[in-house]
Task: inverse folding
């Protein structure tokens, strides 16, 4: 799918859902956001150019109304883990949506999502990782689970001797890959031809198991 425009369904119009809808719509994607409370759509800014659908997000008729049969991706970000897992199961198993992502609050239930082959984002784990690294004065390290695999993302300032080099010429550990670079506080996806400059910060990804 890459940078192609996508048909994306968001379930849950809370702060995260509304913000995500604006960002994706602003990137040019076709966005439909579902919530069972019509008043929840008040969280959307006036400039939102996507579609809103009021209804139970695990109801197949509601999902069809939202265009799930031609959706490229669905993400469930309601405050209810049960709703998120059920909506993602329906999207993945019944409608064969290619990309399905669920936000969960209870990290102890993450394995349940993975058993169904679902990708998850757990704010609890992400917050703990960030605060832990700050408290201990460690380098910023973030842990993320995609499907059944765990990854760490670590930020490192480039060495003086690497300034001026092309990204593709850097020597890194075999179990790592360069995910991108922070340049002047802006993120740039990894490009072998990118030339590093003083103060650039690498984002390295490692598979932990």
Result:
């Amino acid at each position: 799918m890459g940078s192609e425009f996508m048909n994306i369904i968001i379930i849950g119009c809370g702060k995260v859902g509304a913000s995500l809808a604006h960002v994706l719509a602003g990137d040019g994607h076709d966005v439909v956001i579902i919530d069972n409370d019509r008043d929840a759509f008040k969280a959307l800014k006036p400039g939102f150019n996507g579609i809103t659908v009021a209804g139970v997000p695990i109801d197949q008729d509601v999902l069809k109304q939202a265009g799930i049969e031609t959706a490229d991706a669905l993400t469930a970000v309601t405050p209810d883990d049960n709703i998120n897992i059920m909506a993602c199961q329906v999207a993945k198993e019944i409608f064969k949506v290619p990309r399905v992502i669920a936000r969960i609050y209870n990290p102890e239930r993450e394995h349940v999502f993975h058993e169904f082959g679902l990708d998850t984002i757990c704010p609890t784990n992400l917050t703990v990782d960030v605060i832990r690294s700050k408290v201990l004065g460690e380098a910023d390290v973030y842990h993320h689970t995609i499907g059944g695999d765990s990854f760490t993302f670590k930020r490192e300032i480039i060495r003086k001797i690497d300034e001026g080099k092309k990204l593709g010429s850097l020597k890194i550990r075999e179990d790592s890959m360069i995910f991108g670079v922070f340049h002047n506080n802006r993120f740039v996806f990894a490009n072998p031809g990118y030339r590093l400059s003083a103060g650039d910060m690498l984002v390295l990804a490692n598979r932990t198991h």
Remarks:
- The mean pLDDT is 83.
- The helical segments are 15-26, 60-65, 81-94, 110-115, 123-136.
- The domain at 7-121 is CATH 3.40.50.720 (Rossmann fold).
